[in-house]
Amino acid sequence: MKKWNLLILLVIFNSMAFSQNKRDYKWVMGWNLVGIEGGNIIDFDNHRSIDTGFIAFAMGSNNVSISDKYGNLLMYSNGCAIADKTHHIMEGGDSINYGESWERFCTAKYNTGYPVTQNSLILPNPGNSSININGYYLLHKRTELLKEPYLHTWCPGVSYSYVDMNGNNGRGKVIKKNKLIFNTTSLAQGYMTACKHANGKDWWIIQIESDTSMYFKILLTKDTIMVVDSQSLAGTFPHGRNRGQAVFTPDGSKWIAFNPVDKILIYDFNRSTGELSNLQRVNPQDSGVFVGVAVSPNSRFAYLSAGLDLYQVDLWADNIQSSLVHIAHIDSFPDPDFYSDFSLAQLAPDCKIYIVAGITNNYLHVINKPNLKGKACDFRQHSFYLPNRNENFSIPNFPHFRIDEDQICDSTITWISDEYIVKKINKLSVYPNPASDEATISVYSDGYEQGKIRVYTITGELVKTMNIDSEATKSLDVRSMNPGVYIVKYIPKKGKEEVRKLIVGR
Questions:
Q1: Looking at residue 362, what is its pLDDT?
Q2: Measuring CA to CA, how many Å separate 260 from each of 172, 263, 332, 404?
Q3: How far apart are CA 296 and CA 142, in angstroms?
Q4: 342: closest CA among 324, 322, 366, 321?
Q5: pLDDT tens figures, 20-51
Q6: Which structural domains are found in the chain, ordered by start?
Q7: In this predicted structure, what is the pLDDT of residue 124?
Q8: CA distance linking residue 257 with residue 265, whole number of Å
Q9: Cα–Cα distance between 495 and 482 in angstroms, integer?
Q10: What is the pLDDT of residue 388?
């Protein structure tokens, strides 16, 4: 009996230990509208639910979020702004990456999020006493359009914004914004990923300079974030401006990058020094314009999303190219009008790999058993249904938070068919916020009762009244409104009123 009691205690202890590192357990996806377009927050915790309804803004191809160690959502970003756990723009969280691309893609007119895949990442503070320890770094890159010597986009450097989670009554406050870490003449778009240092505390971030093939090593420590070294690997990544994806293996032993021109680059990675070495190339027979890569929990198999096809390679093979196996070709399933292809991929807390389509649709592809070789990996196309439509290329970008733990992921997390719990998040959304020209006000109600939207000044003067129906979206022209704080109130015929704050700026 004593042996069984000890075993039970060990199981409970291990479960509790794993449960305290759930920073990637909430996936925020979708749009900030309702009906066909709306939010999806996948919860990999014991709830196994999908929250639907309003999120603060559209989550396009630049998608990052983070939870606390217990799996409670703290913040998310689309590269344009930072939202807090209540789905409002965080205090000070507007105008991330401000510039030409922000003006084009982050205003009410477009509202699609910053237009670069894997261009941001959120990391917890390793423990800096001079900056509040209860905080997070959002790493991000601004893009610019160059016309010489040919028309292309590029990133002039890597920046960070810092969130103090003690600010604004625990909802978070951005206390540093758009701070440049380093600049260069031709930094590749995207490929933003990180790996924990061998000391188990600090973080390595690898960034690539396109055309020159210079690799920069950024180190985030308890004291600072800065470029500590660079490494010239001439000729290995000349087309870094092309969209693709980079990942570290879950054990941190390799760094892998995939784009449609340079194909697959696989390096050994030294977690102590940040050194890349022993390059191996893999060239799939065909690849699409937008591609992705993810690695199995045991760090053995890399899965290459190549647009129309999915491949697997064995990273433990002496010759990785010779281990290339074709897993699947798209099955021409329309959703609703276009085929659901294979794009960015992400290893999830349930030990499965999820692949997003390069088009807007309601499905994710799933590799159910990624530790197994060949087609035994059990790949299922469009097998995970999202209640609201997901933007093309939109899947969260996470590092491996549990790299030194016994369990990289938890295979006991199960989804019973499609019978997961669907919950509504909220009823009222205002975006962009602050607004300078036009704000979009969206309302969702569980029934079909009518209601009103009223906009007040901070002193209570009525500015605007709009009649709405269920699942209604209204545009508010703020150009004639004085800069300042306004109150937006949703008043349904039945049910609870909801209030949001709107900031009008110039």
A1: 84
A2: 39, 5, 21, 32
A3: 31
A4: 366
A5: 689 999 999 987 654 445 789 999 986 568 88
A6: 20-424 (2.130.10.10), 432-504 (2.60.40.1930)
A7: 95
A8: 5
A9: 32
A10: 83
